[in-house]
UniProtKB/TrEMBL annotation:
Cofactors, names only: Mg(2+)
Domain GS catalytic: 115-329
Protein name (database record): GS catalytic domain-containing protein
Keywords noted in UniProt: Ligase, Magnesium
Record carries keyword Nucleotidyltransferase: no
Matches recorded under InterPro entries: Gln_synt_N_sf, Gln_synth/guanido_kin_cat_dom, Gln_synth_cat_dom, Gln_synth_gly_rich_site
Molecular function GO labels: glutamine synthetase activity
Taxonomic lineage: unclassified sequences, metagenomes, ecological metagenomes
Length: 329
């Protein structure tokens, strides 16, 4: 499968169904289960879904007062492939796959309420200046025991005992959960997700997986979205649940989502790098812009009530508007 070949080389003959999915405002994939006989219909961009599903809240409900619902008759949009192609899914009982889609209006114009369309507009603005953002992400998540009504750390597959202590960069924890992690990396290779290093994080059953840098913000965002779904699916396969929520435990470390980025020009020159430790004036202007707008952007960086439970002083979380070189606090 190549990134530019919609159907790729994926054999869908053994698949009974596929999923056509769009991404909503909270990074949740929403869509339809479609018989594989209708694969061409999906790839041709004739699947329809309500435009309003791009703007649901974290509970999957319509946002009160949303103009995408009653004021417009909750109209359908046209779902067209993003170009990612057929993405195999390895954790379901039968072979299946999903096809990432994004929304057009009935007229064929891009639907600007689709968050992927919003990101594409930002990328186009960079391109108009001859610039390309180079992006990498780090995703933190917890494995939890799903057998109780309240979240609890998982039991070690090796010892059978529940994890009770924090394990920052603990090799034993990585080894105890190596079957799960091996399946995660295998699925990433199949889906074309550039997973890099993994560590055991501060919390019991908490892990972090880094992605490699890409000169394609849309691709990097797609990878992060698919990775989150992949981890949750493989966790279920191993008898766990996985959560990327900011603060699943009140008394344990929260989970962050880190984004690294730089800017390169048309010649591939990193415009933030002056060859030394200080960075270029453009980098400093970029940092200043982040500092100036960080409070207004809290709605994006911390969109839910649970997000703010993580933002505590002394918790390795961004509770102050500040910056520094090699500074995690």
């Amino acid at each position: 499968m190549t990134l530019d070949d919609p159907a790729g080389t994926i054999d869908t003959q053994d698949m009974e169904n596929i999923f056509g999915c769009v991404c909503d405002l909270n990074g949740v994939l929403r869509g339809k289960r479609i018989p594989t006989e209708q694969l061409d219909k999906v790839l041709e961009g004739t699947v329809r879904m309500p435009l309003s599903i791009c703007g649901l809240d974290i509970w999957g409900e319509d946002i009160e007062g949303s103009v995408m619902v009653f004021e417009t008759g909750d109209a359908d949009g046209v779902c067209v492939p993003t170009g990612r192609g057929v993405v195999p899914i390895s954790w379901t009982r039968k072979p299946t796959a999903l096809i990432p889609l994004w929304m057009n209006e009935e007229s064929g114009a891009p639907f600007l309420g689709d968050p992927r369309r919003a990101l594409a507009n930002v990328v186009d603005r960079y391109k108009s200046h001859g610039l390309t953002p180079v992006v990498a992400t780090e995703l933190e998540f917890y494995l939890i025991d799903p057998t109780d009504d309240t979240p609890a750390p998982p039991c070690s597959p090796v010892t059978g005992k529940r994890l009770t202590s924090d394990g920052a960069l603990c090799l034993d924890e990585l080894e105890h959960f190596d079957h799960f992690l091996n399946d995660v990396y295998d699925a990433c290779r199949v889906q074309g997700i550039p997973a890099d290093s993994a560590i055991s994080e501060n919390g019991a059953g908490q892990f972090e997986v880094n992605m490699r840098h890409l000169p394609d913000p849309l691709r990097a965002a797609d990878d992060a979205l698919l990775f989150k779904r992949l981890v949750r699916g493989i966790a279920r396969k191993h008898g766990f649940a996985a959560t990327f929520m900011a603060k699943p435990y009140g008394d344990r470390a929260g989970s962050g989502f880190h984004v690294h980025f730089s800017l390169v020009d048309q010649d591939g020159v990193n415009l933030f790098d002056n060859g030394g430790d200080d960075g270029t004036p453009m980098m400093l202007h970029a940092v200043a812009g982040l500092l100036e707008t960080i409070q207004e952007n809290a709605l994006t960086f911390a969109p839910h009530e649970n997000s703010f439970r993580r933002l505590l002083p002394g918790a390795h979380a961004p509770s102050n508007v500040a910056w520094g070189y090699e500074n995690r606090t």
